[in-house]
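Hi U.,

Before I forget, here's the chain from the pilot set. I'm dumping it here mostly so it's searchable later in email.
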Amino acid sequence: MVIDASVLLRAFFPDEQQMQAQALVRDFVTGQLGLLAPSLLPYEITNAVWQAIRRSRLTTVQGEAILTAFTDLHIPLATVGWQQVLFLARQFNCSAYDAAYLGLAQISGQSLITADERLYNAVQPHLSWIHWLGDYQAGTFTNGETTTE
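Structure:
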């Protein structure tokens, strides 16, 4: 399953903790769920942590702990070609970053899970393989899941 930064941020930020995000991360750690992300994921997570520190939402110590925990997950990363990213960004009028997640899900034949409401609402009517984090329940997806459309 392709995971975007919004899901991980919900799992790690103390003021955004969501049971579903933490359950998903737990399923990955225990080997019940395979995850994949575009190579931009560490930069998005780092930027979100930095912005939270700048706004005093997190302390530097908290931010560093989040980044360490994220790094320790060892989520596999993959590149997505700019052609596909640009095509999807234009098709759904979204950022290239969001399109990279969509593109990776599309080329890998896996579902994408997100907590980004704007992205989900924009593409869900067109792509059956995008899932809302709030609908996740532990064990609902398996390593072998492949859904394409």
